[in-house]
Amino acid sequence: MEFFEAFVNMSGGSFAQHMVNGISLGSLYAMIAIGYTMVYGILLMINFAHGDIVMMACYFTFFGISVFHIPWYLTFILVIITTALLGVVIERAAYRPLRDAPKNSVLISAIGASFLLENLANYLFSGRPLRFPNIEVLSQNLSLGSVQIQAISLFIPVVTIVCLMILLHIVNNTKIGMSMRAVSKDYEIARVMGINIDNVISITFAIGSALAAIGAIMWGIRYPGITPMLGVMPGLKCFIAAVIGGVGNIKGAVLGGFILGLGEIIIVAFFPQLSGYRDAFAFIVLIVILFYKPTGLLGEKTTEKV
Amino acid sequence: MLKVEELVVAYGGIEALKGISLEVPAGKIITLIGANGAGKSTLLRTIIGLVKPKSGRITYNDKDLTGLNSQKIVTTGITLVPEGRRVFSNLTVWENLKIGAYMRKDEAEIAKDVAWIYSMFPRLEERSWQLAGTLSGGEQQMLAVGRALMSRPRLIMMDEPSLGLAPLVIKDIFRIIQEINAKGMTILLIEQNANMALKIADWAYVLETGRITLEGTGSDLLANPEVRDAYLGKKKS
To answer: What would the pLDDT profile of B49-58 be if each residue is shown by its tens digit?
Structure first.
């Protein structure tokens, strides 16, 4: 009953601190997981390059602030825009030519795009870790009573909620959102309605990558070492988050992100001797959920009609 | 209005359409009957640009449509009510209608057309905010027709609108087809329900394994012993 011992010995203050940390990590995962789920919803493929888009966004931020000395808020905006463009370019170059090809070809192309980005980063920026720029306002510690919290930990959930609300508004209440949902359901008939599905797919990649950029910035502030392989682990975990929430479902991705984020922090906080297994936690959750609910927590059962 | 000449469509090496020619004059109801696998759906899918033909020509009001993509073709005023309805089940009824008018910008007119379709199908208005996936088969078919009408088409192609529906609902659907036609829209109708389809058709074609084997007025074909035998389930008399 170590859990309870740890729990009892823990002061209310540090419990709150862990919760804030967990929520903040969960929000971060959610931001990146949304990109996976949106692309899957429309193209029925896993964009393996998504984690590497996160990595590129970290490098973009480094260059913006540490090399070109652009003010951090301007850098953030530029990074979001360039990362969105990068996502669109990857789709154009690696996925669009394979639109009518079997799904496996697209998947392999996605893995190729992922390797290309990783090795490109290795070649351009070298494998030596760079330090993510320190942004005083966001990385400072705030004390709330006995609780010490990094400003970013409070900032991340707020940004995530705002982004999620904007995203859900776009998807549910705008014409472009309506066409995205239509394309995800039946792209042949969407074409017959006069929808340019290539544009819709580009916009989906732009939105997913922009959210990944925001996630990347928050990731960099929390974990400041930037390497070409940085995107692999968050990419994998956020993919898992999307799957356990029900891939294709935006709210599911957010839910999955929170489950993983909170779960990881709880393991580290309450079972310190298990903290070496924190990465394994995601996979265990994945296996358990797939076993009991293969479509994910919020996923719908799809019956394929012929 | 629509003219198809010597159209050949192949999937892989197999020819689904082996040189089809037909004509759809403005303002008429043209039907195409035939058994499963005769190539009926392939023809409509090719006209709307979802399938690329191997050879042949499709012209619409003297404009060559052959090989254009769907997005361009639908702007000329052609629309498709697809086989199996294929409404967007994850969109509400109202959104399905709105998406039918995707290419239009005249919001006021779009609202009028939605109201018109709701007056034609009151069931849809009652279910305006429901997801289309929750509708019954007949309601979904009405929605598919309504969605097609929202683009203000001049030619509506319908792929087996009666498929899987109750006889009373089928009657409704055919009544609506005639109503739409009376409003000046041209109709190209594909049906397995040959009896009903031939009754309302101005001109009809019989498609067999990728070839047109017979054509004539609806009433001629209804009286034709071969057609009666093969498609109407009645013994030659």
So the answer is: 999 999 999 9
Strands B29-34, B186-191: pairing kind: parallel
Please give the structure tokens belonging to residue A83: 């990362």
Is B206:B213 a contact under the CB 8 Å cutoff? yes
CA distance A285 to A263: 9
The residue extents of the domains of chain A are 34-230
Cα–Cα distances in Å, from B32 out to A69, A258, B81? 70, 56, 15
Note whether B88 contacts A188, CB cutoff 8 Å.
no
Domains in chain B, start-ordered, CATH in brackets?
Answer: 2-231 (3.40.50.300)
* Confidence (pTM): 0.89
| Alpha carbon distance, N-terminus to C-terminus of chain A | 53
Across the interface, whether the CB atoms of B80 and A192 are under 8 A apart is answered yes
Q: What ipTM does this complex have? A: 0.90
| Residue A196 at interface with chain B, using a CB cutoff of 8 Å | yes
pLDDT in tens, A95-141: 999 988 888 899 999 999 999 999 999 999 988 999 999 888 887 88
Please judge whether A194 and B102 are an interchain contact, meaning their C-beta atoms are less than 8 angstroms apart. yes
Q: What angle do CA B161, B175, B117 make, to 5 degrees?
A: 80
Question: Strand, coil or helix: what is B155?
Answer: strand
pLDDT tens digit sequence for B100-146: 999 999 999 999 999 999 999 999 999 999 999 999 999 999 999 99
| Contact between B159 and B83 (Cβ < 8 Å) | yes
> Are A179 and B88 a contacting pair at CB < 8 A?
no
- Give the best residue of A99, A192, A195, A250 to mutate against chain B (max B CB count within 10 A): A192
What backbone phi and psi angles, to 5 degrees, belong to A196? Answer: -80, 100
CA distance A253 to A27: 10
Chain A neighbors of B86, CB-CB under 8 A: 186, 189
Residues in CB range of A263: below 8 A, 6 or more apart: A22, A281, A282, A285
The answer to whether the Cβ–Cβ distance between B99 and A182 falls below 8 Å is yes
